[in-house]
Amino acid sequence: MNTAPLVLGGARLLLDPSGALFWPEESLLVVADLHLEKGTAFDRHGLILPPWDSVETLAALEDAIERHAPARLLALGDSFHDAGGWARLDRVLKARLLAIAARIETVWLSGNHDPEPDPELPGHRATIASRGPFVFRHEASADRTGEQIEISGHFHPKARMRLRGQLIARACFITDERRLILPAFGAYTGGLDVSDPTIAGLFPRGTTIFMRGRHNIYRFERAAA
Amino acid sequence: MTLPALFSTWFTANGWHPYPHQIEMAALARKGQSALLIAPTGGGKTLAGFLPSLIELSETPPEQRRGIHTVYISPLKALTADIARTLSRPVAEMDLPVRIESRTGDTSAAARARQRAAPPDILLTTPESLALMLSWPDSPALFGNMRAVVIDEIHALYGTKRGDHLALCLARLSRLAPQARRTGLSATIADPATVAAFLAPGGEARRVRLVQARAGAPPDVRTLIPSGMADSEDWYLPWAGHMGVNAAQAVLSRIRAAGMSIVFVNTRAQAELIFQALWRINDETLPIALHHGSLEIEQRSRVETAMAEGKLRAIVATASLDLGIDWAGVDQILQIGAPKSVSRLMQRIGRANHRLDEPSRALLVPASRFEVLECEAARQAVAAGDLDGPAPRPGGLDVLAQHVLGMACAAPFTADVLYAEITSAGPYAALARADFDDVLAYVEHGGYALRAYDRHRRLVIDSLGQYWVRNEQVVRQYRMNIGTIVEAPMLRIRLRGGPVLGEVEEYFANQLTEGDSFVFGGEQLVFLGIRDMAIEVARGSGDRPKIPVYGGSWMAITSNLARRVRALLHDKRAWPTLPDPVREWLAAQARRSELPGEGGLLVETFPRHGHWHLVAYTFEGRNAHQTLGLLLTRRLERAGCGPLGFVATDYVIACWCLREPTDIAELFSEDMLGEDLDDWMAESSLLRRTFRNVAIIAGLVDRDLPSRRKTGRQITVSTDLLYDVLRKHQPDHILLRATWADAASGLTDLSRIAAMLRRAREGLVHRRLDHISPLAVPIMLEMGRERVGGMAEDELLAEAEMLMAEAIAPATNEPLPDTGHSGYRSRERRRPPADRTAGGRADRANRS
Description:
By secondary structure, chain A is an alpha/beta fold. Chain A has one domain: Purple Acid Phosphatase, chain A, domain 2. Chain A has helices at 38-43, 53-68, 85-88, 91-103, 197-200, and strands spanning 2-8, 11-15, 21-23, 28-31, 72-75, 105-109, 124-126, 128-131, 134-137, 149-152, 157-163, 166-175, 179-181, 192-193, 207-212, 217-222. In chain A, strands 8, 9, 10, 11, 12, 13, 14, 15 and 16 form a 9-stranded mixed beta sheet that branches. In chain A, helix 2 (53-68) packs parallel to helix 4 (91-103). The two termini of chain A are 32 Å apart. In chain A, 49% of the residues are buried. The mean pLDDT of chain A is 87. Chain B folds into 6 domains: 5-212, Rossmann fold, CATH 3.40.50; 220-384, Rossmann fold; 397-484 and 686-743, no CATH class; 490-549, no CATH class; 578-684 and 748-791, no CATH class; 795-835, no CATH class. In chain B, the strands form 5 sheets. In chain B, strands 3-4-2-5-6-1-7 form a 7-stranded parallel beta sheet, with helices on both faces. In chain B, strands 8-13-12-9-11-10 form a 6-stranded parallel beta sheet, with helices on both faces. In chain B, strands 18-17-21-20-19 form a 5-stranded mixed beta sheet. Chain B is built from 30 helices and 28 strands. Chain B is globular and about 85 Å long. Chain B is α/β, with parallel strands linked by helices. In chain B, helix 8 (161-176) links the parallel strand 5 and strand 6. The A-B interface holds A 1-5, 14, 43, 46-52, 67-68, 159-168, 170, 188, 195, 208-209, 211, 213-223 and B 449-450, 452-453, 455, 510-511, 645, 701, 705, 707, 718, 721-722, 725, 728-729, 786-789, 791, 793-794, 796-801, 804, 818, 821-827, 841, 843-848.
């Protein structure tokens, strides 16, 4: 895995192809939108997602932790797909999540899918977090006049490029000097195109996007709409 | 044998004599002998198939009949209606007490209910409707007294999954009615023995008698060779391409000179282009229509009716008209673009002229130089009667899974008895018991990786070891998903505030943005948006219309025809039939490099525009080449050559690299199908598409849920996930095995890559040239125009990132011109030279 560096507010951040963000100076790993147990949530509605999404998401998280060895873990909300997610989580997976929280100081921000995380979920909860030049929250705020640079998730941004006739769609990080939105970390997550006004409107002066590859991050500049 | 008096009188009264093969078929039927009849178009084939049944029925009073006497199976619904009309004449004229009815997906519910209560004597149906009827618990009563089953156009079913499905249904019919004989009918069969084995009970060809009718007049096939005169209506001969638009003027004059023509093309996109090109110059407004599988059914049947009534001068058509109702009045067929398959060409030629003793006329219109060679090779193959049939292949496990569930719907079974029945079907004669058990386990509970999921449990076992279908919902689901034809995900095209015009592949629709224009149904349309599961469009024009792209519709050149093209290239004695520009082109190749041999493999490498190019004359067809390109670029990457991309046609593949590839023998060594293939399998979107089809056929996912229609995209997304899950957690799942089996042919065509690698081992010739060779010119012209289908997405992204960075190398804060492609552009790059790596990823901290 090759990370891509991003300097934001004077801090040197590393963007990981898994979709995670690592801040070496603070030994902080940030992930957004795990959507754990999305598969089982859908199955109850008669859809047919296979049952392995939580396994994969958790394995990817463990892998990212293995590679970056963070002291702190921050999840930017929508960590579970719905309120019953923690209860449905497989016993073995619960144990693995507990093991992570026991080793690493873990903070769960609340998201629109999980406004009130299950009390059994190990770690701290918050709706907003602040560290250094950054403010962390689930969904980007429309108004960005404050001093702090905002890091958020929620939108599952993805970018599409037409290359040699192929349309390639990938989850991506999207940023300007005022804010950074993380891609969804979860295994079964769709996405919203970065050209959608909901996202594009947050970046009136153009953006840099970092598309997730299998082993690399690919960087492109995007002009303002 | 002589025909019964009633029948011989009828023939005489009409002024006919029965053909010898019609008499022979009747004699064989008397003995209960199964038979395969090969008779040319216009040779009384249909009557030969039905005559024995009509005779038997004329001798059996209606009160002595119980159930269906004869089942007729056709690959086309439309054909069953046509046959019903054809048969009604002898039945009426001889006043035979025979009831003939057709039963297809289009049959009304009332008619279906009546047929079930009071079955007709002769039932005309399709393989899918037959499978449905065989899943009824009362199927033994319906078919138990059947005497004959007739399979029409059997060559269109043999060797396909539909054929596998049909063979399984025939095995069940034989169990219900062991006394029934089987009859196969066809006009064009490459290898009668293999088709006989397919038709025969137990797969034993000797149990089927082959009846060969006298051949009709040999067809008159010509190639339209350009005059090369700039002021003539002929076009000049292009170096590259396969659309043949340049030939429009010449084609129009051939249409004008004949009464009625069918203009066959190879893809829907090409049909659209040719139709437009013809109408652009059609000053006399000759009635020329368009027919392809994406047009609305009503539109298609209007065209067919107009054709039948003789109101049209020409139809531009795709494979949608390869099979179908005979139109007596067609004077000639034109094939624009190389024919790709001799058998398909024969089938198409057979659509012209149904008088047995006059030659059918066909004109081949090559679109480029290589295609001239292919047309010439095809012409020679037609003259030699050298058809290309599908290679015998074992029946698909996905099809078997569907059938097993269907049999459970009919009645509970034990594994041993069903296994014995299945292996009596030709394509499954060699099925291992272990494979059967795996399929049965999959149908029972979905297989190891999926057994936790309730929805995949479809069978239950009782204490006697009998398998029962689990509940009514499973039965309902089975009946809604019968069949092996899986359509690519399609979206309807709707005119804003107007009617639906047809469908395009969702893949194409996803590439459109508002304001894009494209050609469909002969009209230029502007894309407005997607609403209510349909593409909304308006009539109008843009600057450069895109053309609908239909991924699945490309037929690769067959091995047989490709072998003939290689032989033609190699054999200078055959060249005099070729036009001058082509001859000169080949002679130049012989001087500057060399001509590809009949066996072996010629590979050229040469520098051009700062890159090294590798061109391999593989002739294995576009599908195999797409896969090969991906495998080759992986190897070039490992060899440190820095491959940038590849492009493939039916004949040639070319890769371009940053550095010179040197060890060509190593590059084409046979272990290419080892580890590289594994990597490729994980990524290939084609394999995912193959898996999707397998998953739908095997009933893992539904085409339609009872409650709502799923879009193709929803299915694709969920089958992609299932594919990854199974690969990871149960790599030997039978649906993955079925997917690998399919990968040997079709869109990935791995078996042909294996054949090419064997040739390379026998004789690889590497020519290192100073510059491009004449034979490489066409493929170089394709570069940049053709989509690089197989290339890994990540490599494309890396390439784009690097190219954009290179294009705007010096750091600058000035506004930059947009690169126009996607709204993205690369800004200044800080790229410390010391860090620069081959992949151009210097700005990443390497942490792995």
